[in-house]
Design goal:
single chain; mainly alpha; 23 helices
Length: 479
């Protein structure tokens, strides 16, 4: 038998490896081999769930920094049948109300209710990444988000971050499956996912229209595309009917959307920091305060109309400022969240220690966020050589853009990108999987052979880091 020739370059590199390096490489290869297993998924999700339960046990029922309990309070209002204005979307309050009915009252029950959402999120993330890339890439993605600080912190936060992330990833995954397999239960599940996502985060309402349209575009079968559209429309229509019969002012889903539109697009809105609930807070001008007070004195049904009229009038009179604010909202969307050390600050009494703890967790956050975004950007410009299903990548990135677009037009801040980061992670770990199987030069071959592609990728990376540096300077100067 002829002896297999080893490429000269690889032979030289191997000769330079020490015994310790060879041992480390063998251990890494063994870990990667273990990740190429169905059992690894269950082990990683179990580890991530145990980690969150341990942290939750430390937190208990204590209030956390800037924790929004309004969704829990709205669930109590829905249960009591009292007259109130639905400022928040109803999807999560109904979910929390279900857990309250089954397991009893208390903020601790509300926090525990998000843990099953984390489990579901992990499995649909694995399924989507495996469908687009490979099983090992899927397990790597699940492992990364099991350790990602923001995705630990929000796993017991009764807010919309995790339900929105799970719904968005599930919608993309089910859309890809529905195109490949004709199954009416699968199409109905996609419709339920799109409808529930719209009720959790109304900015995703566009997906309930675009996803069925994309399904029709790919299958050319109107009947199949109509199923998810009708199911999602049924859920949203049920909410409209409920709003109509409740003893409260009518709102399509909730009434905070128009107010956010007004706050982000009025003559007194800052040009960059357009969201009043950002980590970098506004210096609210007195003119805006007076305007809000004057509107608050009007009837509730008239307030929405006034908010909308003022915002539209300002946009039409100064479209240049609207475009500038939209561009700045786009930049703010891709910044990173700032941590304040909760829930670990209870072990540190000195304010300086708490501050440094928050900085340390934020730095750890960047160790996940920056590599994911960098690898995702590189992957987008090298799709031809990355082991991916290109149409699946288009569906994932299209869903991310449709979900984020209302934020860029109205109200944007770093934590709003929580649901879309997993979609970028799918591309990132697909690229990493390709690098594990082949050399970097083979994976990066498209940008090596195309000047315009390479320049466009470098320009995108430079723009991303400019956003990050600008945000660091802004946060540091504000604190």
């Amino acid at each position: 038998m002829a002896r297999e020739l080893v490429p000269w370059r690889r032979r030289v590199v191997f000769m330079k490896l020490s015994k310790g390096d060879v041992g480390l490489k063998a251990r890494v290869q063994d870990v990667l081999a273990r990740l190429d297993s169905h059992l690894a998924t269950y082990a990683i999700v179990s580890f991530g769930l145990l980690l969150r339960i341990i942290v939750l046990a430390r937190v208990g029922g204590r209030p956390l920094y800037q924790e929004n309990t309004a969704y829990y309070d709205m669930g109590l209002q829905l249960a009591s049948g009292v007259r109130f204005s639905p400022y928040w979307p109803p999807g999560l309050p109904y979910y929390l109300l279900f857990f309250r009915t089954v397991f009893g009252d208390g903020i601790l029950v509300a926090r525990v209710s998000i843990l099953p959402v984390y489990v579901g999120f992990s499995f649909v993330l694995y399924g989507l990444t495996r469908k687009i890339s490979s099983r090992r890439a899927g397990n790597l993605a699940v492992l990364a988000f099991a350790l990602y600080p923001s995705y630990i912190r929000n796993a017991f936060n009764p807010c919309t971050e995790y339900p929105a992330a799970a719904g968005l990833v599930a919608a993309v995954y089910l859309s890809i499956l529905a195109i490949r397999t004709v199954s009416y239960p699968l199409l109905a599940a996609l419709g339920l996912c799109l409808g529930a996502l719209a009720l959790v985060r109304p900015n995703s309402l566009g997906l309930a229209i675009v996803a069925p349209a994309y399904l029709y575009f790919r299958t050319k079968r109107l009947g199949l595309a109509a199923v998810p559209w009708l199911v999602s429309a049924l859920l949203v229509s049920a909410r409209l009917w409920k709003s109509h019969v409740l003893p409260a002012p009518f709102a399509m889903i909730n009434d905070s959307n128009v107010q956010n539109f007004f706050l982000s697009n009025n003559p007194h809105t800052p040009l960059y920091n357009t969201c009043p609930f950002n980590p970098v807070e506004w210096e609210v001008p007195p003119q805006l305060t007076e305007m809000e007070q004057a509107i608050a004195n009007r009837p509730p049904w008239l307030q929405q109309r006034i908010y909308r009229q003022i915002a539209l009038r300002h946009i039409l009179s100064r479209p240049d400022l609207f475009l500038l604010r939209t561009f700045n909202r786009f930049r703010a969307y891709f910044c990173f969240p700032i941590h304040h050390g909760d829930p670990l600050v209870r072990y540190f009494h000195a304010a300086a220690w708490r501050r440094w703890l928050g900085i340390g967790i934020t730095i750890l956050e960047l160790c996940f966020y920056w590599p994911i975004m960098i690898l995702a950007i590189v992957s987008c410009f090298n799709l031809r050589s990355v082991r991916t299903e290109t149409r699946g990548v288009v569906a994932a990135m299209g869903a991310a853009a449709i979900y984020a677009l209302p934020c860029w037009l109205t109200c944007s801040q770093p934590r709003y990108n929580f649901p879309v980061i997993p979609l970028f992670a799918v591309l990132a770990f697909a690229l990493l999987e390709s690098w594990l199987e082949r050399s970097w030069s083979e994976v990066l071959e498209p940008i090596m052979r195309s000047d315009w592609r390479r320049r466009a990728m470098l320009l995108t990376l430079a723009f991303f880091f400019y956003i990050q540096i600008e945000w660091i300077v802004m946060v540091a100067s504000s604190t």
